[in-house]
Design a protein that fits this description.
The chain has 437 residues and is mainly α. It has 15 helices and 7 strands. Helix content is 40%, strand content 4%. The longest helix is centred in the middle third of the chain and has 19 residues.
């Protein structure tokens, strides 16, 4: 699930969900060179920028960390997840999100003074804009804001059909996928949205597909951005969902429904099937790659930061669960879901509203109960990170997993990620998507 930033100004953004170490070394290199974006990156100290503690956070905002890089992203995911499970968000939370929109329809990561017009040089962000579209379209009653945002997204589509986080940059799989989800949420047919060179979003997304190229264990994968780069699990999870025309919210397939995962048919490093690969086949190949990676690491995906030992990646694993569910691969989603139920609560508690939202949406996609997720009531915990909801339906309880940003009981591998963060990266990359703040 995935928003934006640059090394000096904008941390690489998502799709998918969320900003804790979720962009592998390949994407990090791409971000360093190209300022690429995927899920909002975790807040990093920027020279001259006040700390979160020194600022008074706006009324209605979810989370307690500085919103400079992911305010709209985390707000959108929180509101969308609440709506998905029958919670009516506080009016102040919705009002805050709507007030972040610029006059041209775009959203930036955060506007400290929404009453003032967006400066011409303010960094518009396709990830944050697409996330806001998905949230506001689901909530209803914001048709004008959604239409303006969709119009802006269409205006910054790259010639190859893709999108980048920052308009004018080369496209990436995560940004293209989150925009596809926004178009679908707004009632558009993504295949009918074409660039000046008549390329669709699916054409753009396919440019990041490895298919049968490279080593056998990479078949079906997608790269984040660079043609010929290494396979990227975060980008693959985003693309496998996006190729099916789906966004952050994936409706559960229903009990007993199951579509087997089919790896791409390859011969001599090429797709065995003659003719172009369909969107469904590309999504299925991506799902097969994810399943292979899950099997390798033991029911979860790994993230590898430069110079650090690979660690279990909760955010990417949640994205993979949603991608598998989107393709109807319920049996394959079951094991990583069970791993999340056992291991994700402390990560979400430390990371904040977007992380809770990501887990809520993974539970929803698989037909699981987010109010009893491995002993944690994700819905109550998510609600506690923002203004009190206007209404809550369904059973819920006081979560023993509070939304406080403490490190108590955090597994060693999450602490390890934090150490890697402090050791010199300045921020961590994340996908869709997308969770720290």
């Amino acid at each position: 699930m995935a928003p934006t930033a640059s090394l000096a100004q904008q941390a690489p953004a998502p799709h998918s969900g969320a900003p804790l170490a979720r962009r592998a070394a390949t994407a990090l290199a791409a971000a360093l060179v190209l300022g690429a974006a995927a899920a909002p990156a975790a807040y990093a100290a920027v020279p001259g920028s006040p700390s979160a503690a020194a600022k008074k956070l706006p009324d209605g905002l979810y989370g307690t960390k500085d919103p400079q890089y992911d305010g709209v992203w985390r707000q959108s995911l929180a509101l969308l997840a609440q709506h998905t499970v029958g919670v009516r968000p506080a009016a102040s939370g919705v009002r805050w999100l709507v007030g972040q929109q610029c006059a041209d329809g775009a959203f930036t990561a955060f506007r400290a003074e929404p009453g003032k017009p967006c400066a011409a040089k303010a960094m518009r962000d396709t990830n944050q804009t697409a996330a806001a579209v998905q949230a506001l379209a689901a909530l209803g009653g914001h048709g004008d804001a959604v239409d303006k945002a969709v119009g802006w997204l269409k205006s910054v589509q790259n010639d190859d059909g893709s999108w980048s986080s920052m308009p004018g940059s080369p496209g990436d799989a995560n940004s293209t996928s989150v925009v596809i989800g926004a178009l679908a949420a707004a009632g558009q047919k993504p295949a009918s949205v074409t660039s000046k060179k008549h390329k669709t979003p699916y054409d753009g997304l396919l440019t990041f597909r490895l298919g049968c190229a490279g080593k056998e264990d990479a078949h079906g994968a997608f790269t984040f951005q660079l043609k010929g780069a290494a396979p990227n699990a975060d980008a693959t999870a985003a693309a496998a969902t996006g190729m099916l025309g789906k966004g952050f919210v994936v409706a559960p397939a229903g009990r007993g429904a199951h579509t087997p995962v089919t790896p791409p048919a390859c011969k001599d490093g090429k797709d065995k099937k003659a003719g172009p690969v369909s969107a469904a086949q590309a999504a299925d190949g991506g799902a097969a790659y994810l399943v292979a990676q899950l099997d390798k690491s033991g029911q979860h995906l790994l993230s590898a930061m430069p110079g650090a030992k690979p660690q279990p990646d909760v955010g990417n694993t949640a994205d993979a669960v949603v991608a598998l569910a989107a393709g109807g691969h319920g049996a394959e989603a079951r094991r990583p879901l069970a791993w999340l139920q056992k291991n994700a609560a402390n990560w979400a508690r430390q990371s904040g509203p977007a992380a809770y939202a990501q887990l809520v949406l993974a539970a929803h996609a698989t037909g699981s109960d987010p109010r009893s997720f491995g002993g944690t009531d994700l819905v109550t915990a998510l609600n506690a990170t923002g203004p009190e909801p206007a209404a809550v339906s369904g059973k819920h309880k006081d979560a023993d997993a509070s939304a406080k940003d403490d490190g108590g009981g955090i597994p060693w591998w999450i602490i390890g990620v934090g150490l890697a963060f402090g050791a010199g990266l300045g921020f961590l990359l994340s996908g869709r998507k997308r969770d720290r703040l």
